[in-house]
Design a protein that fits this description.
This protein has 254 residues and is α/β, with parallel strands linked by helices. The chain has helices at 3-6, 22-30, 44-49, 53-56, 71-80, 96-106, 118-134, 158-171, 210-223, 234-239; strands at residues 13-18, 36-42, 61-64, 85-87, 110-112, 141-148, 177-181, 187-194, 199-206, 231-232.
Amino acid sequence: MSAADTSPRVSPVRMALVGMGRMGRALDALAAERGCEVVARLDAPEMQAGLTRALLNGADVAIEFTTPETALPNTAALLALGCPVVVGTTGWNAELPRLEALVTQHGTPALWSPNFSLGVQLFLAIAEDAGRRLAGLDGFDCHVVETHHTAKKDAPSGTGIAIAERLGEGLGHQVPISSIRVGAVPGTHDVVIDAAFEQIVLRHEARDRRVFADGALSAARWLARQQEARVFTMRDVLRSGPAVSQPASAKPER
């Protein structure tokens, strides 16, 4: 018997998916490959009827991708049942203090991120560094442009806002954002740095929404192990070690 045969097996993380739209289906398709067992698939009818422990079916953690209007009520219901939750819905950033209060009230952790792509996390750091290097340098102007599919409800996107904030932290002032909604674009984000005779464009382009599903599953596996009741972010996940895998054989969906 080989060493591989005798090594201890790691039990899959039992997961509830809340929202079975595009992202929910992408999560469902990738979950088993990423060490997760989907034990509950919950959509609007189940959530509106009232979430119960029976519906969660013993889930260790939940991932919520729905709408800006339902994200906080859904998360509140999950936390009340003691289920840690990864919130991927964007467009409700103003309610983050309420989420922090719910996490404290129920003693259950949550994780929120406007974007679960590892590349976007790197892009945020690059934007902040670019802002610091441009601070005080005359003649350069900065702008963030974010492009998404026509079905995306929030504009600007949560990622666009995060990029502008990180860029602004470096610059020391606010950065404007322009939003474009066209076709089926998963997500493209540009930082435009313009001067009289030259221009720099920094771009992150998502080619497949599975990159977001992959990161959200990694975040969920990480969150299921946390004991501290607070609101975490992808920064916390990445600080603790490699979290998002990028399979070399992955091919874009057509």
